[in-house]
Design a protein that fits this description.
By secondary structure, the protein is α+β, with helices and mostly antiparallel strands. The chain has a single domain (3-403), classed as Cytochrome p450 (Orthogonal Bundle), CATH 1.10.630. 49% of the residues lie in helices and 9% in strands. It has a six-stranded mixed β-sheet. Strand 2 and strand 3 (45-49) form a beta hairpin. The chain is globular, with a radius of gyration of 21 Å. GO terms for molecular function: oxidoreductase activity. Belongs to the cytochrome P450 family. Its EC number is 1.14.-.-.
Length: 404
């Protein structure tokens, strides 16, 4: 451990309950909004940013980098240095102009128009999964019955990935995002996932289909901008992030609504509230709390504190989304909240989540359909007995037993 970092609080900090951020966040916002912490994963220091305005400033500043290979970058999982340097950067970890090139290639795939076209198929997938739930009868695990299959099916169809392969890539994704596995296990998961996606891309280079990977290949042939490895990297990122985060939000959002019956009753009574409910649930949980890690390229000043070049920065979305200066009574779930859309659950700036329109589509269809078709849905286990993903980069629940 870095001796100079021993006096700093350890990060990550535990949530006090699944419905609230770590208690330390509010104290830091009030007394030390730009503060030092020690990373549990490697004992290195990093800056924690906890106010909404400061986080927007950091994420919008070209003097900070998303490049996880740079010294000082606050890694959230243990990765051997030789592996870190050998693995190509993904779209998420690139800075402009390389990031800009790939974002322009991907953006049309997630446009509002494309999501409108996709909505009927998403609705069909959700209905089919709920049909299966009703046929099986309760209790069922909502995670395996609905939360995981819906985004997995959707992203598989979008990318042109055989859905029968989903157990493999879901396992690899879970291992990659876990803080609690060995470096060897994580390295093996990275290798297997890369090999799998590389095979898909190679096959589509010879026999393209009507899917996102094929369109990226054809677009790049018409106007060469990236290499084969870059298309593999983009496809891998879409495959992992396209199901993992949304699956966790489906389960957590369902749990929150079941545990807040007055909020659920309002959604059931007025479907026009669904879009605002989705935004509020995204704000409330902020499941990818530190996924916007950065490293300073130059000395920068945030909130009166100077962060030196080469120092790691963790803009904490969960802290920003519970900032009293932006959200009144922030620890209360309120689906009528007018300012909910100001949340930073999808990040901010040039790296703002490119798949946010897809996530909103899937969450809205799932919540609206689930409670309409199974109005008597209820938990089949005590909330205290649920196992939450405290060991993962993306927060969630392992199982969610429900019945009706």
């Amino acid at each position: 451990m870095n001796p100079s970092a021993e006096q700093h609080p350890a990060f990550p900090m535990a949530r006090r309950c699944p419905f609230g951020p770590p208690e330390e966040y509010a104290k830091l916002r009030a007394t030390e909004p730009v503060s030092r912490a020690t990373l549990k994963v490697n004992g290195k220091p990093a800056w924690l940013i906890t106010r909404h305005e400061h986080i927007k400033k950091v994420l919008g500043d070209s003097r900070v980098s998303a490049n996880l290979k740079l010294p000082g970058y606050p890694l959230q999982v243990p990765v051997p240095e030789e592996m870190l340097q050998a693995v190509p950067l993904t779209f998420l970890s690139m800075d402009p102009p390389d990031h800009t090139v790939q974002r322009r290639m991907l953006a049309p795939e997630f446009s509002v128009r494309r999501m409108r076209e996709l909505r009927p198929r998403v609705q069909q997938i959700v209905d089919e999964r709920i049909d299966a739930m009703l046929a099986a009868g309760g209790p069922v695990d909502l995670v395996t019955a609905l939360a995981l299959p819906v985004p997995s099916l959707v992203i598989c169809e979008l990318l042109g990935v055989p859905y029968e392969d989903h157990p493999r890539f879901e396992t690899w994704a879970g291992q990659i995002m876990s803080r609690d596995i060995s470096e060897e296990e994580r390295g093996r998961a990275h290798y297997e996932l890369d090999r799998y996606v590389d095979g898909l891309v190679t096959a589509k280079e010879s026999e393209p289909g009507d899917d996102m990977i094929s369109r990226l290949i054809e677009k790049n042939r018409a106007e060469p901008a990236v290499e084969h490895a870059d298309i593999v990297s983009m496809a891998r990122l879409m495959l992992v992030t396209g199901h993992e985060t949304t699956a966790n939000m489906i389960a957590l959002g369902t749990l929150a609504l079941l545990e807040h019956p007055e909020q659920l009753a309002a959604v059931k009574a007025d479907s026009a509230l669904l879009p605002r409910a989705v935004e509020e649930l995204l704000r409330y949980f902020s499941i990818s709390d530190s996924g916007t890690a950065r490293v300073a390229l130059e000395d920068i000043e945030i909130g009166g504190t100077v962060i030196r070049a080469g120092e790691g920065i963790l803009p904490l979305n969960n802290a920003a989304n519970h900032d009293e200066a932006v959200f009144a009574d922030p620890d209360t779930l309120d689906i009528h909240r007018e300012e909910a859309r100001s949340h930073l659950a999808f990040g901010y700036g040039v790296h703002q989540c490119i798949g946010q329109n897809l996530a909103r589509l899937e969450l809205g269809v799932v919540y609206g359909t689930l409670f309409r078709r199974i109005p008597g849905l209820r938990l089949a286990a005590s909330p205290e007995d649920l196992r939450f993903k405290d060991d993962a980069i993306v927060f969630g629940v392992h199982e969610l037993p429900v019945t009706w």
